[in-house]
Amino acid sequence: MDVDSRMTTESDSDSDATTAAALGRGSGSETSSSSAPSTPGTPTAAPASPAVAGSGPRPAPGYTAVNAVIDKKEDGPGCRCGHTLTAVPAVGEEGSPGYVGPRLILFGGATALEGNSATPPSSAGSAGIRLAGATADVHCYDVLSNKWSRLTPLGEPPSPRAAHVATAVGTMVVIQGGIGPAGLSAEDLHVLDLTQQRPRWHRVVVQGPGPGPRYGHVMALVGQRFLLTIGGNDGKRPLADVWALDTAAKPYEWRKLEPEGEGPPPCMYATASARSDGLLLLCGGRDGNSVPLSSAYGLAKHRDGRWEWAIAPGVSPSPRYQHAAVFVNARLHVSGGALGGGRMVEDSSSVAVLDTAAGVWCDTKSVVTTPRTGRYSADAAGGDAAVELTRRCRHAAAAVGDLIFLYGGLRGGVLLDDLLVAEDLAAAETTTAANHAAASSAATDTQAGKAPGRYAYNDERTKQAASESAPDGSVVLGTPVAPPLNGDMYTDISPENAVPQGQRRSSKGVDYLVEASAAEAEAISATLAAVKARQVNGEAEELSDKEQSPDSSSSNKHSSLIKPDAALSNNMTPPPGVRLHHRAVVVAAETGGALGGMVRQLSIDQFENEGRRVSYGTPENATAARKLLDRQMSINSIPKKVIASLLKPRGWKPPVRRQFFLDCNEIADLCDSAERIFSSEPSVLQLKAPIKIFGDLHGQFGDLMRLFDEYGSPSTAGDIAYIDYLFLGDYVDRGQHSLETMSLLLALKVEYPQNVHLIRGNHEAADINALFGFRIECIERMGERDGIWTWHRMNRLFNWLPLAALIEKKIICMHGGIGRSINHVEQIENLQRPITMEAGSVVLMDLLWSDPTENDSVEGLRPNARGPGLVTFGPDRVMEFCNNNDLQLIVRAHECVMDGFERFAQGHLITLFSATNYCGTANNAGAILVLGRDLVVVPKLIHPLPPAITSPETSPDQIEDTWMQELNANRPATPTRGRPQAVANDRGALAWI
């Protein structure tokens, strides 16, 4: 294809289908907003627009010019259009020597008009772009210092271009497509890596066919994972295709998507912006007939792998193309744009906001109910100075926190070199319209007899057939994904290079842990007595259940766990079976140096105690397209405060003097919100893969942050849009930070009720956590009055926690085990909540307190070293239970295991423990399980950190009271599973059973 040496602008006779192309901006706004707060050095934005008379969504904010610092002429970007502007988040911890604040990266664009740029044409309609003026230079705007600088990255840069696209992936800027002096740019992906002190260009190797050369298209990072490219022009015609590149799957490969629903027509010069929760909005553009578009389309990925388009609600104030758009929280800010024939959008429609929480468009005056009919002139200046400032096209936009920045563009045939800023104070607020919609929805649910919570959030999902499984062709998790080392490729270390088992298993503290845990047995003895009294009345029923179940000690011992399925008789493809991945992912114990947090992938055979890892996801069957746009964040501010304060996988530090940051009123609000959700859930949750499963945490908040840091965190910046989280109980006691652990998990549950799931452990009981640390911590950190009140309120909440979870109807997750009494899942489902340990049955005791026997050779029921009345169950009981319920795997927690996970019953039961170095002496690893959609279970581990080389005198923030150490010494933990234990009188114990 021959490409002309220059690009004409859009006129009434636009002919991009037959000529090379007209220059338009790419989608420099398609970046995630960083969360850097404003500082005294930050540019001052125009005052926020006043609220509309009568409460409602705020109008679009006004823009002001920024007088940025430019030390040398070459540091400033100068006049240009068709460039991109990309927001890159801060690097490092604020206040540390290596901290780098948020930046805007400007790349490429055209710096000259057709003819003599010093003498601009009489109208925009006659202004063209000289492709010889296209550039490949990089400029950086430091938001905190208000200063421009020119960057000279290492490596081979992309060719000069304009009308390309750019987006941020962490601290890297990805460039693709566009057009330059030599014609259409190649489809290669170029990455500007800003991680190191000296930026560097890289070319990304992508396998297979891709979107091909194009310009005027859009690109955005969706859900912090999928790089989406849509539309544009290939030099012949506008396009409507959608391509996706999964940044978490290597080798990289483009995949052409076929989204469901009504999508946009073939178009170019649109914008695409990704909301933080994974919703992409494509706005405006110009179709194949050179008609500007006013509609907006949402694109979202369902958890079953489907992508779906939906038309955004509201009335757009004006059609437009060659505009700019960027999200600030739930509000999409749109600025400028062209209409063809040299005309541009102006008047109050020049700046607009699509409030996706309220479902309405706003301009600078009010909510838009009908399209505006203002003046559209190429030459005349607007009557309003603020409108004139934003009247432009082919510019670029990016957002940092609540600030929206615009740079450059074209107005009236003149290239611009100004930087504008606006502040959207409404972005962090919940609009009245959104509140009203939420209230109306809640009222409707109440009238329909539904309780609020996860099982009332998506009607279509609850109507799904129980036997429905993940569709074929869904994303499959292969080799475990591990964190990169300094931005390099994922590391696969062979088993011979692994840390020897002996080095990891210190014998320190073995004798201490083997001591009888008499205190724990005493704590449960009163409860056991009450349960035993009730057991007499229910003994006949329990025995009846047992007599009706098949004998597993012989004939069933080696039988298949899967009963014949009716579906198989119809020649249907059998559902995938649960299997353990042959490698586990491990993070080394080193914390400092260039290799801090090194990742290893070890064969399962390298572990003395084998285990698996599980993760799940929840499909969304949204038949109504509007539901795609209804992904709203919680309106409760307390969960947001907790998440903002605590969800810091790399930056969290224990509070100085251990003062807890929430008061009892805030904890009350948090518990009330979470309790409403728990009360709407069944006792046995019904969950879908993919999902991550966490074992005991025991107040070791630092380990939780390490697991989030290494293997993904439940946030919009993490992987919450694509994988769910399940926690198996024992959140409190033994560790130093039970309040942080419980508060964050509750906040995550409120914020992501359909994605974060908690079930109950044996320490979520007042009589237990009164003795093992949680009550003492509440008083010590909040004062006696508030601490005791908080402890009581948390324990009332614990009585509402679900008791187990079924994943894909193949895996059951619980805290303890099946003990002597549990033969069918229905027995757990029939437990009515709220339920206390005292009021519970032997089923509840077994569910929360029982353990497997020492190994696969010990069958039947045996006494439990935890105390009289508690039992252990053998592999025959596991096989019997799985056969009775058509299950393939039991995942449970409750016991510390050396590798963080351990297999039992020939792999049909896995014990999972996530806290490292339990009670400061066990030196055990912590693990999670990740279950993929293909039901492959992958274990992921972290090892204990080495002791800190600090003293209270030199590091006041490391001061920890000795109360927890004394408590653990006085009330030793149950010995680590797999280590020698004191054996009770076996004959007497069996007689008791």
UniProtKB/TrEMBL annotation:
Tree of life domain: Eukaryota
Locations listed in the record: Nucleus
A GO MF term: protein serine/threonine phosphatase activity
Free-text cofactor note: Binds 2 manganese ions per subunit.
Cofactor: Mn(2+)
SMART domains: PP2Ac
Keyword Repeat recorded: yes
Enzyme nomenclature, EC number: 3.1.3.16
Swiss-Prot/TrEMBL keywords: Hydrolase, Kelch repeat, Manganese, Metal-binding, Nucleus, Protein phosphatase, Repeat
Reaction(s) catalysed by this chain's protein: O-phospho-L-seryl-[protein] + H2O = L-seryl-[protein] + phosphate; O-phospho-L-threonyl-[protein] + H2O = L-threonyl-[protein] + phosphate
Compositional bias annotation for Low complexity: 16-57, 550-559
One GO CC annotation: nucleus
Record has Nucleus as a keyword: yes
UniProt domain Serine/threonine specific protein phosphatases: residue ranges: 759-764
Gene Ontology biological process: brassinosteroid mediated signaling pathway
Disordered as annotated region, ranges: 1-59, 460-506, 539-576
Principal subcellular localization: nucleus
Family: Belongs to the PPP phosphatase family. BSU subfamily.
PANTHER family: SERINE/THREONINE-PROTEIN PHOSPHATASE BSL3, SERINE_THREONINE-PROTEIN PHOSPHATASE BSL3
Protein name, as recorded: Serine/threonine-protein phosphatase
Gene designation: LOC125510508
